[in-house]
UniProtKB/TrEMBL annotation:
GO molecular function, one term: protein serine/threonine kinase activity
PANTHER family, alphabetized: OS03G0642600 PROTEIN, WALL-ASSOCIATED RECEPTOR KINASE-LIKE 21
Protein's name according to its UniProt entry: Wall-associated receptor kinase 2-like
Organism, as annotated: Panicum miliaceum (Proso millet)
Lineage: Eukaryota, Viridiplantae, Streptophyta, Embryophyta, Tracheophyta
InterPro entries xrefs: Kinase-like_dom_sf (IPR011009), Prot_kinase_dom (IPR000719), WAK-like (IPR045274)
One GO CC term on file: plasma membrane
UniProt domain Protein kinase: residue ranges: 51-324
Organism domain of life: Eukaryota
Amino acid sequence: MQIKRHKKEKDEYFKQNGGLRLYDEMRSRQVDTIRILTENAIKKKKATDNYAEDRVLGCGGRGMVYRGTLDDNREVAIKKSKVKDDDSKEEFVNEIIILSQINHRNIVKLLGCCLKVDVPMLVYEFITNGTLFEFLHDNNQRSPIPLDIRLKIATQSAEALAYIHSSASRTILHGDVKSLNILWDTEYNAKMSDFGASALKFMDENDFIMLMQGTLGYLDPESLVSHHLTDKSDVYSFGVVLLELMTRKKAIYVDTSNEKKALSHTFILMFHQNKLQDMLDSEIVDYEIMVVLEKLAELVTQCLSPKGDERPTMKEIAEQLQILRRL
């Protein structure tokens, strides 16, 4: 009797957490449902030491990410929803559907999901060194970052975005490109993550209904006005990430007058005043490579163009970054 009750409870959780919709989506898209829907044979609480604080890898508005260990001793990242509302569950299901269509070396792999529980969980490959945001802005662990490493991370991130825009089985928009959503490993390989805000619902036109998410400092001003998300919205956000790599300043930073400023606005102003060098991180200012930095700055200004149709595609950006790496 107790076993039946437990099974019924798990089945109810599965429905509540969007499992049926997920099955339907997987079938309609002919996606490998076994890989995505298999409930991992692990005890999640044991895997994360009962969600201990020292296992926390990151915390977002809707979920906590913990470092965990599977029964086969593989290290993983386990994302657990913080809230149980329908929007949060929809975001989790959306991320599963998105990542099930993606296979790229610079995009974090989804290993499985757990929907037959009170709060849904996603299980990802574990990326060793954390986020690009921490790498650039954590003053407690600040260390010099050579330009070639910055360009490598930028290029691989651009290639990942170019892939989801034009090479995946269906066009996908990330919707929340930022340094906090770019992971990196011990070899400085970049991995794009957090596809919960991604746009998947394709409209008849070339635009996607804008999911009003994103992060202050990275948001495309054109999309905020039009309420439509396009591939050029990701391009704008990526331009801000390039600025972070060039300046080591946050997207919203505090200036010497203790005022909050948008990095993108300050950069455009300084660039047009021929004060590029004043904006650059002093670690990479070298007259021998100024030609590379100047070309990179020009690329950034194109990404940050107020008009989306004047911005390059992510494929073009990736190609330009590859050229800059060879200079």
